[in-house]
Structures are given as structure tokens and as C-alpha cells.
Prior knowledge:
- The protein is α+β, with helices and mostly antiparallel strands.
- Among the domains are: 257-411, Flavocytochrome C3, Chain A, domain 1; 501-632, Methane Monooxygenase Hydroxylase, Chain G, domain 1 (Up-down Bundle).
- The protein has 20 helices and 23 strands.
- The mean pLDDT is 93.
- The longest helix is centred in the C-terminal third of the chain and has 26 residues, at 561-586.
- The strands form six sheets. Strands 1, 2, 5, 6, 7, 8 and 17 form a seven-stranded mixed beta sheet that branches.
- Helix 1 (23-34) links the parallel strand 1 (11-19) and strand 2.
Amino acid sequence: MTDINIEDFEIKEFNTIIIGSGAAGLNCAIHLVDEGIDHSKIAIITEKLGGGTSFNSGSDKQTYYKVSLIGDQLDSPVEMANDLCARGAMHGDIALIEATNSIREFFHLVQLGVPFPHDQFGGFVGYKTDNDPKQRATSIGPFTSQKMGKCLLKEVQKKDIVIFDNHYALNILVDNTKKRSEAIGVICIKTDELASEKNLENIINSIKIFKARNIIMATGGPAALYKHSVYPESQRGSLGLAIKAGCKLQNLTESQFGLASIKFRWNVSGSYQQVIPRYVSIDKNGNEIEFLEKYFPSFHQLSKAIFLKGYQWPFNAERIENFGSSLIDLAVYYETEILDNKVYLDFTQNPVNYEETMLDPITIEYLSNSNALASTPLDRLKLLNPKAIQLYIENGIDISKEYLQIAVCNQHLNGGISGDIWWETNIKHLFAIGETNGSHGIYRPGGSALNSGQVGGLRAAQKIGNVYMKMESLNRDEFLQLIAPELSLIIKNINSVLFKKSLMNIDQMAPPQFWETIQDRMSKFGGIIRPVKDLFEEGKNVIKQIYNLNTLLILQNNNEIIEYLRIRDALLTQQYILESILNFHESNGKSRGSYLIIRDKLNESFNERYVIPPGDLIQFKFIMSDNILKGEIQTIQSQAGIIKFEWEKVRDIPNEFGWFENIWKDFTNGSIFQ
């Protein structure tokens, strides 16, 4: 192995480094400048500028969620906070912060050029979204987050904030000698400098070291874990960074799943469902059936479920009974994952037994009010939302001529890294914003994640600008002394995985095969179906793969080193998620949110009962009970190499808001930021 000299490495130093270039990270960079940090002391590190979820995701009407701002509708930050955390496992003070600052961040986006619609009086109109009792949602159409990202990036470039593109962050450097561990830097690999052959010196030369007073993780959700995903393929996620750094994480059991197209990754929510398309399953022999009619007693009830699926898009354990809308997701899951069939939406024909007079009244009223009653789903969609058709045409799919393949897809992690009211983690100077931050609870209103990412960026910038502005960090010698052993270990690991011989009697895999193993495991144990059977053993398999990864993985050249690092990150993240799910089972948790809990025995002390879906879906009989656990948040952290769980009591929404003169004084002297 090539010898290294730590003194040979160039070290770039900044006050604040943001890892990730999505809407949350870009917004944070802007606010850092607004809070007084010189633009030259801020850097954004990103694997691919424009590659994250916010630049590539959307739906028929992608939502931004905020306090209502129109007409005589009564609303307040406290009311919105109540609704954000009403379904449980979300801290009340965090909910209040997201609600209170939703107005500020919404108008920040308006100021930057995001064209949210308003009426002739200047009122920003709203509508109801998932889990929303009021009309707080707003949208600019399918590309809300994409426009946000573009406007935010334009402002970042205008402020001349440096962006290090093609940089894969592989380690957050932490000083563990302090009473409270502190983040001090980042080690990256410059991906476009990697050679197409095996060459360790090339890898060493591609390593870039950054020293920083503050680090902000804005790397998005763990998209690479799932076989069926709405995340763009360019989004991978890196929760493993936080796990290796020693962060506490929370609510890793809580994700959001829903129906989406898979040839082009896009949620089939809203108008795609409200026009009542035909659901078709095709087996390996080409046999085609409309499978949903097997599970609904009448077309009337089926049409209602399809329509409601438009704004009840996320899979919901509480919407299975009584022929609810999530019964559709479960039926699609059965067709694709159990029967290995392909499922499609057909907009060219009506479902079997379709009669306009038999549609549910809420469907008739909506389509009538929208002037969208017509003879076929396609014609209804042309009247209701023609851009929804054009979107697929622009991505190579003409739904007027072909079926649209769909599956139940992972869409969002509601849990993530634990943060305080300034989005700072248990590691000092390390912040987590956007989807990496686990602020959401069991359910969340649609669009609240976009608001949460913007508010998180604001809060982190405020704390840094008012408390951590000075560059009081380790001197160069201290820094090098701390990071030298870690850098040596990184290079040693890369050398061992890259330059090894094929071994007999060991099932070695190339990266694509390894990803398939990871994703199949997640589909079986971490999707909408959560069986306890075999979960413990599968968790042990994950740990074995982590410890033996250098032996198991076959790499062909330096370029594939990034795949090795991604797989290592994914395995570590998967271990924590599956451990969290197992702990939830052991705590007698019930089906909730976007998953069904499946155990062979009922625990009568928690008044557990089985819910038995109809027809062939009986195999998914799942547990509901009184043991909601909504008043607690599950946390997970490695301490001295041992994974430990705690169930923290949810903090209430604050109800004392202070006296003006006292708040004014505390704000002026900066004590509110401590």
C-alpha cells in the first residue's frame, strides 16, 4: 500500500460547510449570508448539482404547506402546530417552529421568484392536502420544488457562494476529545478525478479535506434502499454519514409510501386518480385483468376509493378497513410483489362496470365543479389537468396510447437525525436539515416536508450567525493529528476492497447484485408490510455484510469506489432501520402510518386485534391495537459500539409566548439563540 503523508493534503477551511445542494441546503446558504456570515466563508459540497430530490420530484400538483393566508379562514401557528403533530411522534416545539416560520419562508420563496398563485386582492389561495383539515396547501403545479430549487440556486450564485460539485462526502470528521463531541470537518472524494483503472495513488490524490467550524447535512432521504422508489435515480441519501459520526436518530420506522409510475418516477396522485382510471394487472403470460373489482363489493365503493386516492395518496394503515383508499395500494402490492405481475393505469378506457350515475357523489361533485365530466379517464384528465398528460409525453410516455406502469413506491423518510429547536444534532456544530432531519412524526400533511426543509435551513443559519460565527476551531496541527488515523483507515479500507483476489467458497458480488440484495431485503421487511418473522435473522445478515463488505464486494476500477462507499452507507442505514423496526415489534407497536404490522400472535394486554383484508389479501392480516405509542419518539444511537434505544416523551406545544419587552431584550442580547 502507498504511504501517505498527511502534510501533503491541501486543507480548505470555511466557517460553514453544507453537504447537499437541494432546496434545504441552498436556502440555508442564503440565510447564512443574511445572518452575517461572509459568502467566502461558506461552501456547498455536493455529489451532483441539481441531482437531488427537490430538483427532480413532483406530482400532478406538488404542494407547499403553510399557515393559511387568505380570506376569513381562521388559522394560527398554534393551530397548524396542533395539526402537524396531531397524529403523534412529533415534538410540539418543533411543530410550532415549522408552523410559525412557514409564513416567513413562504414569502422568502415568493421574493425569490417562485410564482405561487394569488387572487386580485393579493391573497394566496389554498386547498386541502393529505392530512390537512384546512386549506393551507399551495402549489405552482407539478414542478413546485423544482422551481424552488432553481430560484434558490440563482440566489446562491448571485451571492457568490462557492459550490464544490462532484464531491462525494465519505466522512464527517468529529473531535471526540471534548465533553460534547464536535464536528470539525469533512473528507470527500472528487468523483470526476477517479481513474478508469485500479490505481491507489489516483484515489489518494482524489481525496479532498475540508476544515469547518460548522457542518450542515442536507443530503436528503435514503433513496437507494428501495427497489421501487419515487426518488430520482440521482438521489441516494447518506444517513450513514451521521451514523458513523455518532448522531442520535429517531423515528426510523416512519416512512411514506404511495403509488407512482416507475418508468418515469412520478407520484400518480391528485388528478391522475380523480378521473377514475382503470387498474390493470398483466401476468407473465400476457393475461390481463382488472383486479380491483375482486376487493370492492360495488363499483360505487371502488370509484370512491380511487377518487379519494387522489388526495389520500400516501398508503395509510387506517384506510384499509371499510374499503378505504389504501386497500388499492395493498392490492397493487400483492399483484407486483407476491404474484410478480405488472400493474398499470389505463386512461384510455373506463373501469369495468363504469356508469357515471353510479359514481360516488363526492366524485360527481368534484368533476362537475371542475367542468371535467367526460366519457373516458383521458378526456376527463384533458379537462381537469392537461399538464398532467403533457408531463408524461415530455418524459417519453403517451398515456393517450399506452398503459402507465405503477407500483407502491417509497417516497419519503419521516424519521431521520435528531435535532434540537435549532436543528443542531447531539454533536456540537453539526446540523441536519431537510429530509435528513427526523422532525416529522407518524403522518404529515402533504407539502409540509418542503416547508420543514426551508425552516430548518433558516434555524440552522440563525444559530450559526448568532452563536457560531467566529472561526474558533482547531489549529492546523491539532486538526491533522485528529484526522490522520481516520484518513489512514479510509485508504486502508479502499485498498483492501479494490486490490483483493477472488476467493473460493465466498459468494462475492458486483455492485448491481449487492444493491439488489439490499433492496429486496428492504421490500420484504421495511416496506408497507412489516413482518416480525425472520426479521431478527435478516438483521444479523446485514451486520455480517457490513463487517465483511471488503471481502464480499467485487470492484473493477477506481470509479466503482463510490459504489462501495454508497453500499457501505446503505447497509449501515439499513441496519439502523431494521433494528428500529424490530424494536417496534418488541414494544408491541401496532400498524400505523404507512405500514402494516404482521405478527402471528396477539397480545391481549394491549387489546390487539387482527384486521383481515378481503379476498387474496387475507395473507396481510395485520395488527391494530390501543398501543399507539404516539406520545413517544423512538430514538436509536450507537454508544461504545452498542446500539441503544430510548423512547422519549413527546414535548408539548409551548403555550407561553412571553412579554414583549422581555422578548425584545432577549432577542437584542442574543440570549434566545443559546
